Amino acid sequence: MLVYPSDCRPDEPMSDKKITIYDTTLRDGAQTVGISFSLNDKLLIAGALDRLRIDYIEGGWPGSNPKDDQFFKEIRKEKLRHAKVVAFGSTRHKSLACAKDKLIQALVVSKAEIITIVAKTWDFHVTHALNIGLQDNLRLVYDTIAYLKDKGRAVFFDAEHFFDGYKANPDYSLQVIDKALSAGADMIVLCDTNGGTMPEEVRRIIEEAKQGIPAPIGVHFHNDAGMAVANSLAAVRAGAVSVQGTANGYGERCGNANLMTLVPNLVLKLGCRCGAEQSLIHLTEVSRLISETANLAHDERAPYVGVNSFAHKAGFHVSGLQKNTKTYEHVDPDRVGNRRKVLVSELSGKSNILFKARELGIDLKNRVALPAELLQKIKDLEEQGFQFEAAEGSFELLLREAAGEYKPFFTLKGFRVISEMAGSKKLLCEATIKVEVDGVIEHTAANGYGPVEALDNALRKALEKFYPEIREIQLSDYKVRVLNEKGGTGSAVRVLIDQKRKTEHWGTVGVSTDIIEASWQALVDGIEYMLFKKKEKTTKRKKS
Fold this sequence. Notes:
- The protein is of the alpha/beta class.
- Helices cover about 40% and strands about 20% of the residues.
- It has 18 helices and 16 strands.
């Protein structure tokens, strides 16, 4: 099976070189302190990476945990348009044949088209970490790859600790790679697992080692010395044709090569070709969506995708920008889906709104007199703490309302939430709510395990008689982020809610110093969005 471009030759000029992008956010990135992806999170991220036209998405390690096993079952139901899903694993256990090794069998059962196998290429690790002989390690590599090739799978070989291994014992590290190639490995991935190699070392070692590697070379860099992106670029210049990394640089310790920096550098700086070059306008959107899904604060100063990546303060910088944006910007923010932010006199930014509106089929030019007014409204909301990258439902309602296409399906007349600690020391909550639908008042109450669930139950109960389809909505995720930690218990919070109905799912957002109010905003948007989309589909069917 051909798993890399046939025109991908290491001696090509950079401007003609095609590079494949391999994302390991769902496996290596999930090892970040503070990250715990749910199954739904992993599927959501995979879909976002596919929209970005990432070539390979490493879904996890089958057999290591039930969540990853389930992911490979569920992802087969998704219609990925570009990316190929990869399963990750290690060589067989030293005392087991591949047919008896449960982890190897889990790789086969995953039905992943491509399997990445990791093995030691540093003799120090073989003898001290695995506690086996150097020849034993070679047999494990050969047996595992040959077995998986016999099963009809493409196999990428992750040469773990390659750069440290090469510096310590180049002959042995290359012996391991030779063994992987003789077993049929389709790509050799050179890994800087400890993350301490410098760019000049990377280029020298790859240029030396590639003479004995008659196969495509990929690279995998960790960021412990802050060099992961620089090392990846050096590796491409030296002949690598595939780069691995994670969204936003997530990963163990200091993280991995940040694909949100690496990809635009490859495309915009080196002139390389890759699938993602056609989707760079989605880069910022995907980066922020993954931050929200990981429930981590987005790096405001991240290159290309940060909130402040193209932010300018008053003074001669702004003066220069007004004459020519190239005076203080190395690329046009529109190219990576970001926007310029000038703190004295706002410039540009409307293109992002218009682009999203076109995607949704909304003609803002005809229906909204000044798109700048809508842009300013969004900026004001963002200043309050709203973020719409992971809340596409709330964002679409905002645009539809501005275009005059959407009006609320119900009106709140009031609600009350009561929390009571019972004798068993279990908190009981009750929500009472009053809403109006087409002039009819509905007043009802419901219980819940917490104030938000009680409010959600009461709202659904009040609306079901008018909109029975609400019963089909499922709450699939709920996240809370404190926006200004220094405010203590009076801090504003951002609530992100993900809901689904049948095969559709959407996110909504709310912001307030009161967590219940923020949750209410997100819950209402979620229901309103579902009702609007259902009405929209019904209208289209009638017209057709």
